[in-house]
Amino acid sequence: MAVAGRTRASALLRVLAGPRARQPAPVRCIHEGPDTIEELLDRHLVKKPAAVLDDDAAEAEARRRLTSSRREALGLYRDILRATRLFAWTDDRGVPWREVLRANARREFEEARGERDPEVVARLLIGGRDAVQQALDRLAEASRRAVEAEEAKRRGGA
């Protein structure tokens, strides 16, 4: 009832004030909070106007995205090089696994160097991060098993 009376009063004030170029937003009391989350966000967040990009701005945005992807790719490559330090043993030919892994990483990065599609680049980066993490997890698990086996051997032999 009080809300309806206040609404009628504010409508009456608008009529008496006469036509203006811009009507003020209706005032709400603090206890009359927003009805929905969207209303709360609309009321309190500043919205950026949707800007129409011209050719130069679109090219700059694409270059920025590419630079970001380039930075991520270089970070991934460095992480791979750091992770390969942990692979000290040799393969069947006597070549250290560290060198084999580094050569494979270099080859894959060179093959993907010219890729410009952001979705493909993102997929490659995610796949690379996942592969490094899986390799490190397997290495940690194998190291843990080796330590446990060594401890079991010491306990059994002692």
TrEMBL record:
Occurrences of domain Complex 1 LYR protein (ranges): 71-133
GO BP: mitochondrial respiratory chain complex III assembly
Pfam families, per database record: Complex1_LYR (PF05347)
Entry GO CC: mitochondrion
Name of this chain's protein: Complex 1 LYR protein domain-containing protein
